[in-house]
Write a structure and sequence with these properties.
The complex is a heterodimer of chains A (114) and B (116). With 114 residues, chain A is mainly beta. Chain A has no helices and 9 strands. In chain A, the strands form 2 sheets. Chain A has a 5-stranded mixed β-sheet with strand order 1-9-8-3-4, with no helix packed on it. In chain A, strand 3 and strand 4 form a beta hairpin. Chain B starts with a strand and ends with a strand.
Chain lengths: 114, 116
């Protein structure tokens, strides 16, 4: 079973920031939080990941709470092309026996509206 | 650098047949993982191969098998196809090394299999 809980769907106005929450209350100290998105019928696309510090790249920012029990993916200026299913995944670090296995939940369907 | 390539993109088979899907990882990547995606079950992990060895396996029947070649290319095979095997099959490759960002999985576009 997935170790994360996400809202089923969210809407966001084009040009506004999209904030996608994720709960992972049972996360272990060495597990990472990964975010992927999947645009309709394409393969999932890696967005960002982090352990405990906030992270930012050219696509998004990841905010992880101090207790690491939840996180938020932020798309700063959402466009129509950001409409997709967003998956939050808790993953063991490299070297663990299950490192090659990603466990996907149902994700959040983000609809960006004009 | 070329991404993960899966062939064919679409496939139609009938019940009882077998099928082989191919995945070419990103150059230099050593690990290939396979996933099945269906509307009912979502994305589910099938197995992972690393250096030609199956390193991890999901909860699927033995009809689902795979292998990895010395150049890291991978194939998965499904024998005695059932209607429920209709799905999008995705593979992902990874450098599978220790270090920041060195074990990120990158996905291909998938093979859509329809079983009639």
């Amino acid at each position: 079973d997935a170790k994360t809980t996400q809202p089923t769907s969210m809407d966001c106005a084009e040009g506004r920031a999209a904030n996608l929450p994720c709960n992972h209350s049972t996360i272990s100290g060495n597990e990472y939080v990964y975010w992927y998105r999947q645009i309709h019928s394409q393969g999932p696309q890696y967005i960002i990941h982090g352990l405990k510090n906030n992270e930012t790249n050219e696509m998004a920012s990841l905010i992880i709470t101090e207790d690491r029990k939840s996180s938020t993916l932020i798309l700063p200026h959402a466009t129509l092309r950001d409409t997709a299913v967003y998956y939050c995944i808790v993953r063991v670090p490299y070297g663990s026996s299950n490192t090659g296995k990603l466990i996907f939940g149902q994700g959040t369907t983000l609809q960006v509206k004009p | 650098k070329a991404g993960v390539t899966q062939t064919p993109r679409y496939l139609i088979k009938t019940r009882g047949q077998q099928v082989t899907l191919s995945c070419s990882p990103i150059s230099g990547h050593r690990s290939v993982s396979w996933y099945q995606q269906t509307p009912g079950q979502g994305l589910q992990f099938l197995f992972e191969y690393f250096s030609e060895t199956q390193r991890n396996k999901g909860n699927f029947p033995g009809r689902f098998s795979g292998r990895q070649f010395s150049n890291s290319r991978s194939e998965m095979n499904v024998s005695t196809l059932e209607l429920g095997d209709s799905a999008l099959y995705l593979c992902a490759s990874s450098l599978a090394r220790a270090g920041p960002g060195l074990d990120i999985q990158y996905f291909g576009a998938g093979t859509r299999l329809s079983v009639l």
